[in-house]
Write a structure and sequence with these properties.
Length: 183
């Protein structure tokens, strides 16, 4: 499915909905095994994680709670600004809880490192990171997800919750954005 808009943006499929569904199933099996009796709090990182989180939790047959944080680091462009800001905090206390952070993509790692450090200060019983997609070798900071589903090399991707300037989150596949003259 290559799409063309008047602005000569091409979306090149990278992972199909079936590949994504397989990856989510694999992650769910591992999370189920590790958290079965722990009543974890899954903390989704808005907005990008909303589809992944929704698909993931519907495969988990266990008691769990869901909360959200919202961070801002990217503007309208495709490069991280490096400046991370917590726009929305979790609502419930995390002290003593088993916390699993769920996000769409680990790219530079700056945002998630900031978030994991922030959450660690709340003294959860455990704190782990689950991302659907990892950009290989792109992390500026030491951070490794405990669960991940898919890996990619360089490029900016959209779809399955991932946006470019708030667009394309609704695409069922994950696609690389290609623009004439680069992005
Ligand atoms: P970092 O670089 O801090 O990424 O690991 C933080 C957040 O930025 C978003 N992000 C992307 N969004 N396509 C997107 O649509 C991308 O290729 C991409 N890389 C990073 C994403 O929300 C991530 O949580």
């Amino acid at each position: 499915m290559a799409q063309m808009t008047p602005a000569t943006v091409r979306l090149k499929p990278l992972f199909t909905r079936d590949e994504i569904a397989d990856a989510v199933r694999r992650i769910a099996a591992a999370v189920q095994r590790d958290y079965d009796d722990k009543n974890p709090v899954l903390v989704g990182v808005l907005k990008g994680s909303f589809i992944f989180l929704a698909d993931l939790v519907r495969q988990l047959e266990m008691s769990l709670e869901i909360d959200f944080v919202r961070l801002s680091s990217y503007g309208a462009g495709t490069q991280t600004s490096g400046q991370v800001r917590l726009v929305q905090k979790v609502e419930r206390p995390l002290k003593g809880r088993h916390v699993l952070v769920v996000d769409d993509i680990l790219d530079s790692g700056l945002t998630l490192k900031f978030l994991m450090d922030y959450l660690a200060r709340q003294k959860p019983a455990s704190l782990r990171l689950c991302v659907l997609l990892v950009k290989r070798g792109q992390q500026y900071v030491p951070i490794t997800p405990d669960y991940h589903g898919l890996q990619m090399d360089e490029g900016f991707v959209v779809g399955y919750g991932l946006d470019w300037d708030q667009k394309y989150r609704n695409l069922p596949d994950i696609c690389v954005v290609e623009m004439d003259g680069g992005i």
